[in-house]
Amino acid sequence: MASETLLARISDYANRPNPYPLYAELREAGPVVRQADGSCLIGTYHEIAALLHDPRMSAEPRSRTASSPEETGRPPFLRIDDPEHHRLRTLTMRPFGPPHTPGRVDAMRGEIAQITGELIEALRDREQFDVVDDFAYPLPITVICRLMGVPREDEALFQGWTDVIVASADIGPEEDTTERDKAGLQARQEMGGYLVNLAEQRRGSPTGDMLSDLINEPDPALRLTVEELAETTILLFIAGHETTVNLITNGVLTLLRRPDELDRLRREPDLLPRAVEELLRYEPPVHMRERIPLADIDVAGTTIPKGTSVILALASGSRDPKRFHEPDLFDPTRPDNEHFGFGSGIHLCYGAPLARIEAETALGALLPHLGTARLVQDPPPYRQNAMLRGPRHLPLQP
Fold first, then answer.
1. pLDDT at res. 381
2. For residue 69, what pLDDT is reported?
3. Long-range contacts: 20-24, Cβ < 8 Å, 24+?
4. What are phi and psi of 265, to 5 degrees?
5. CB-based contacts of 220: which residues, under 8 Å, 6+ apart?
6. b (16+ CB within 10 A) / e for 10-29
7. How far is 221 from 266, CA to CA, in rounded Å?
8. Averaged over 287-298, what is the pLDDT?
9. What is the pTM of this model?
10. Per CATH, is 2-397 categorized as 3.80.30.20?
């Protein structure tokens, strides 16, 4: 049956420019749609929300036989369950500021605006530029490097590492991922080793950055181990970078396809925060997440056996007509916009506050320049990754 191949078709690169008809097919076939590889695919809003908040659903990856001792390292806390997840997340969030008020991130608004302005200035008088390579990619990688205290001459190292790590985290039908996994492991080891070494240089000599705060935690009981420090800082780079690249690029593409809404935002820039929330619903940076039930679990009358791979199609849930009025309409004034753009539940993306500020700043700075801009290619070429979906390039002619 066609429904048994939905995950394969969603993962097929040919459908990357527009997976939304497949999500509509998924919701029609659901709520629970078994796949030929034994996994279950879920794309309806209320079922996804319930599972993201269900403690019986594990975020930890399915056990795999490690081919070498180096491959047995623990995953980042994004893929660890409570109570260990809560401990690591709490410790890592401490340097951001008081609970629920990421003071360090808010304090960076001026620097984020400055970096954005410098990137915009570099595009001046260009006959053509790539929104991804020339703007959306360098902005968040520069911001997160400044947040962590990475020396400016080393910032370029992180682009290559991030690309490989994100590629290794893709979700799709079962296939031979040995080489991809090995490359991802090597990139994680290199990035983690660099960050731990940089942190150690600041032990006892803090320099006011987040890495210094983590390595100089005054309470011995609360300090991260070397392994935990490596994994959590890598996670911050991925969570605080890749989602932002896609959010900014998807935002530019969405607005250029809707000149009326673009003109409206240029006239009413105060709508930008709500427009970013709508972009997170309408063209989200994260499309899918995997969960594993720790026990047999009932979802809308269907029993999902313990240990089954459950793929939650977050982007489908955010366009569920049973939850959102006219879900295929981009509406920057949409009320009650509780989307899955950054997930939900205990594993809500902890880079979300930074990504929101960056997206608002970036789109606000670009708005004056988009009125006469023209897409060179539509649809543009997309990244291979079906889970973290966004254009690989977005060439524009001003």
1. 95
2. 33
3. 20/315, 20/319, 20/328, 23/313, 23/315, 23/316, 23/319, 24/316, 24/319
4. -70, -30
5. none
6. bbeeebbeebeebbbbbbeb
7. 50
8. 95
9. 0.87
10. no
Q: At 145, which amino acid appears?
A: C
Q: Which two tokens stand for residue 250?
A: 């998807």
Which pair of tokens denotes residue 163? 């690309």
